[in-house]
Design a protein that fits this description.
By secondary structure, this protein is of the alpha/beta class. Helices cover about 50% and strands about 15% of the residues. Strand 6, helix 7 and strand 7 form a beta-alpha-beta unit.
Length: about 350
């Protein structure tokens, strides 16, 4: 009986070896795939304040899809556009508090919270969205402000020169005096310095405010005339690029979520994010061209300031830059150094 049992064991072992040896490479790959399927997918939420039709929202979505592609499905990012998960002015805190894992919105929508990054928005004469975006990222890289230590900054982008769009033509500062102009953050100070009355509100509320006469104009890049359909409710654009300000926008991730990612996944996020800096910059410039074309097609005018009037506008907004430097100093921030760095970066990237 014992002998028969031993023979049975030998035969069973031989059978197992034969079955194992009979496995094809395809069988082994399939087994590996099954193992991969058992690995939990990292699912992340991404709150974007832009509406789904906006080119920058689409750029954010394409970034998310690229992350998914390069991680081979190990990461899935659910995008919530149009402030449906967190409102534009609550997006940053929403990431910090865990309402969303990733968020895209404007630093300027939370006034006073970002004393270093505020400097990027100053009316320093940005030539284009690509220049502004490159400058914003390099400025962050060189300053690494404490105000952003609670989140993981993936990248920053910024629009082309902010211009004045109104329902009545504005060819000089006298015509702008007393007009209610939608603006945010430091652009509100620009409006005030130029003699207008700043009215703070996110882009998402601007169309209706213009339509109902709550405001008489808006200070924003010309792309908003198409991207947010505002050309339908204004009649004139004043090209004041010599005082072109920008609005820097963050793409940040929850620190806890970031630290919980495997190192190789973190590297993929970093690589794709670095590539998307110029993606956003180029899209801003393309959108500005489309916005200009859209507003002229609707019969709206674009007013070009005379050289003398342009100098008047530059002189008027100098007080905004000086005020930033003084206020930053009171908060322990070297505003003068920040402005000097930004001017240096604008000159450098403006030549590329």
């Amino acid at each position: 009986m014992k002998r028969l049992t031993g023979v049975s064991i030998v035969l069973a072992c031989c059978l197992l070896v034969c079955v194992s040896c009979g496995k094809t490479p395809e069988d082994k790959v399939e087994l590996a795939r099954e193992d991969v399927k058992k690995t939990p997918v990292i699912e992340l939420s991404y709150s974007i304040f832009f509406p789904p039709s906006h080119a920058q929202c689409k750029a954010g979505e394409s970034w998310a899809r690229e992350i998914e592609k390069r991680t081979e499905g190990a990461v899935k990012i659910n995008v919530y556009p149009g402030g449906t998960l967190t409102a534009a002015d609550a997006c940053f805190d929403g990431v910090f508090r865990g309402i969303s894992d990733i968020g895209m919105s404007c630093f300027a929508y939370t006034r006073g919270k970002f004393p270093v990054m505020e400097a990027v928005d100053l009316p320093l004469g940005y030539a284009s969205g690509k220049v502004a975006t490159r400058v914003a990222n390099e400025f962050y890289a060189q300053t690494k402000p404490q105000e952003l230590e609670d989140v993981q900054v993936l990248y920053i982008h910024a629009h082309g020169p902010g211009l004045l769009h109104t329902q009545k033509p504005v060819e000089n500062l006298d015509q702008l005096s007393g007009m209610k102009i939608r603006s945010t953050g430091l652009s509100a100070k620009v409006v005030q310095a130029l003699g207008g009355v700043p009215v703070a509100m996110p882009q998402g509320n601007t169309y209706e405010a213009l339509q109902k006469g709550v405001v008489e104009g808006t200070f924003a890049p010309i792309e908003t005339l198409k991207g947010w359909k505002q050309a339908e409710v204004i009649k004139h654009t004043t090209d004041c690029h010599m005082i072109g300000y920008t609005t820097a926008m963050f793409v940040v991730m929850s620190k806890a979520k970031w630290e919980g990612l495997p190192k190789d996944i973190q590297q993929i996020f970093a690589q794709v994010s670095s590539e998307w800096i110029d993606v956003h910059g180029d899209i801003w410039d393309e959108a500005d061209e489309e916005g200009r074309a859209f507003t002229t097609e609707l019969g709206n005018s674009i007013v070009t300031l005379s050289e003398e009037e342009g100098r008047n506008w530059e002189a008027a907004v100098k007080s905004v830059i000086d005020e930033y430097i003084e206020t930053a100093k009171e908060r322990g921030v070297d505003g003068e150094k920040n402005v000097a760095l930004l001017k240096e970066l604008i000159a450098r990237y403006g030549q590329e």
